[in-house]
Amino acid sequence: MKILNKASIIIATAAVLTSATSCKKLLDEQPRSSLFPEYFTTANGVQSAVTGVYNDLRGTFSGEGIVFFYNGTDENIPGGSAGTTAPLYNSFNGINSSNGPDITALYVDINTLNGVFQYATNITDVNARTQFVAQAKFLRAFIYFYLVQTYGGTTSTQKSGIPLHTTYITQASTADAPAPLADIYSLIIKDLTEAAAELPSTISATNPFSAGGVGKTATSAVANAYLAKVYLTRAYSEVKQSGDFQKAADLTASLIANKGTYGFDLWQDYNDVHKAANDYGKENMFAIDYGGASDPQYTGYTLQGSGGYGLNQLYVLARMNYVGPGIDNISGIDAVPQRLTTKSGMIRDVYNGRPYVRLAPNVRYTMSVAFANQINDCRYDATFQTFWICNNINVVAGTKSDGSAKDKLIPTSSISTSAYIKPTDGDTAILMPSADVTMARRDAFKGLIVTPKQFNNVIFPTVKKFDDPKRTAPNDFSTRPITLMRFSEVYLMNAEANYMLGNINTAADMLNIIRRRAAYRTPDDASLVAKNAASVTATNMASVNAANVAAMTLNSTQLAQLAIPNNTSNPGSLCGMDLILDEYTREFYGDPRRWYDLVRTQQLVRRNKMYNTNGGPNVQDYHARWPIPQNLINNVLTGPKYPQNNGY
Question: Which of 14, 76, 72, 4 is nearest to 44 (CA)?
């Protein structure tokens, strides 16, 4: 979302339910100018209001708070530097209203958008009014969708949830109550349906919410994609309607059939999806923008600084500390323990980035199940950094198992603490192959070999697909956008909807499109992976890729599994949804979404029991909603006390 207007705004008066917490949170992070109701009567005012909401989304989908999208799932475990809260959510033990995710600050933005709807009729330029209001409808639906997925609404079995505000609040109130889940979904669907009909098909140079046509604000296709996701989500819920899965299938099928109209498509090579040059390309549909390295005014911080509003910390969260964490010896792996010390051959530089170690992959599922096939499927190598080139000129030689010294590592000639420079020479200091190796192999290797049996929450393959080549210091954060909707998700949503409808052949066709794309490798990709990893040359590329496609196409056993209906309770038996969720992992690992995927498909409990050693024994059905934040409850002083979600 490359927004021209750089003012981030809030309404002077907002719902008291969130005013004591949300406004304070926003104002603490960065001062904003007040916006009064009469400002909505001008086109510039409405544009500023919508722009301000887009900017505020950075506060929700960035920073360390984003780890709540990952904890308590099959994919991840808390990293070694995760702190005290993340383990509670991973283990489903000790979660309460004071330590949960609080995205209720978004109610300030909802009130801003309600002001747009109330006053925009005064704008005389019909085209401008239509576009501004359409963006506001999309944003209100988008925000409510995330709120309702996180906290829910009242149903026959759930007593609490989120409130529903649809009018512009100018007088503070201390009363509020949770709204029926059906009403919340009805508003979301209404807003998205109307937005899809009014938004442009593509982002053009005249788009008022882009910079010369660059950006990923909402278009009609984006609104329809989220509408499909809303139908898909509601279809599993207590307020489901009979046509929900079919509507999700129809909407996604239409998007695929008309992808040329919307300017969206899949890259042939999965490696291209996450290249910084393609952030605004054909596969990324909707993103939270951070202004770019050349725009500190919009971003609110310079690259070398660590302050400012809405930092994109995504690339640092699942980054292991390659400089010095220890590796515990595991019986049968090494004759002697190996440790990353000064012998690791690594110092912190720009290319390898800043390690936060907040998240780590759950080897039991992520490596052993989802990414088990690393030969025919390129997505493991495209997602994870599995080798580090020596960048320490003072490196000390390692030791062999017999106590003799190894040959000393030769550092790369491109060491830089002021620019992102890919090493083109030098020895590999740390290598993470996907299988055990012999002691002879370890002794012959100058650096350190870490195999999957040694992976833990301190040392692990690092998520690399969010790396920002524009950084100019080792501790810089990222100015790249955080993509929240990719076109490949449209295919997977179609597969999921058709699977739930019993249309197994169509579901298989959609999965095969994604799987066959993942089979494709190019010689250029070989430079991005370790020398021991799967790669192709110009000579064998065609034959290897053909073999990969054949191997990645769903076989008879997998098709039989796909035909097994959704199993939401028995962790000892696989079903078709397991295939689909595994595909979501391979396609989107590292994206902030997994908890929501498991909740939507009613697989949170079962999949945690299958793969989450710490959380499996404790997870219960009520964990499909996080607790209502306590300070929100405390703000309701008039009328009935605001109720807490079940189980908390």
Answer: 4
Query: What is the 3-class SS of 249-282, one letter each residue?
Result: HHHHHHHHHCHHHHCCCCCCCHHHCCCHHHCCCC
Distance (Å) of CA 152 to CA 56, 164, 267, 596: 22, 11, 36, 12
- Nearest-angstrom CA–CA distance, 207 and 6: 15
pLDDT for 404: 85
- The closest of 43, 89, 44, 41 to 65, measured between CA atoms, is 89
For 492-531, what is the HEC assignment?
HHHHHHHHHHCCHHHHHHHHHHHHHHHCCCCHHHHHHCCC
Phi-psi region of 217 (alpha: psi -120 to 50; beta: other; left: phi over 0): beta
What whole-number distance in Å separates Cα of residue 199 and Cα of residue 134?
A: 6
Read off φ and ψ for residue 154, nearest 5 degrees.
Answer: -70, 140
Distance CA 263, CA 272 (A): 16
In 301-445, the DSSP E strands lie at 359-361, 384-385, 387-389, 428-431
Statement: residue 364 has pLDDT above 50: yes
Helix locations, 378-503, DSSP H: 379-383, 439-444, 487-501
Give dist(CA 117, CA 138) in Å, integer: 12
Which has the minimum average pLDDT: 14-28, 354-368, 610-624?
A: 14-28
- Dihedral of the alpha carbons of 89, 93, 94, 97, in degrees to the nearest 10: 60
Q: What stretch of H or E contains 449?
A: strand 448-449
Q: Rounded to whole angstroms, what are the CA distances from 13 to 49, 107, 292, 629?
A: 14, 12, 32, 21
Those residues with Cβ within 8 angstroms of residue 157's Cβ, 6 or more apart along the chain or in another chain = 238, 646
Residue 325 CA, distance from chain mean position: 26
Q: Are 608 and 615 in contact (CB under 8 A)?
A: yes
Phi, psi of 482 (to 5 degrees): -100, 115
pLDDT digits (tens, 9 = 90+) for 44-66: 888 888 888 888 888 787 777 78
- The type of residue at 620 is Q
CA-CA distance, 498 to 252, in Å (whole number)?
10
d(CA 173, CA 614): 42
The structure tokens listed for 68 are: 């709540």
Three-state SS across 220-256?
HHHHHHHHHHHHHHHCCCCCCCCCHHHHHHHHHHHHH
**Number of other CB atoms surrounding residue 98 within 10 Å:** 10
pLDDT of residue 174: 93
Six token digits for residue 123: 């704008």
- Measure the N-to-C terminal CA separation of the chain; round to a whole number of Å: 37
Tokens linked to 27: 């104002």
Q: Can you give the length of the chain in residues?
A: 648
User: Per-residue pLDDT tens for 209-266?
Assistant: 766 555 678 999 999 999 999 999 999 999 999 999 999 999 999 999 999 999 999 9
Mean pLDDT of 602-610: 98
Give the mean model confidence (pLDDT) for residues 441-452.
Answer: 89
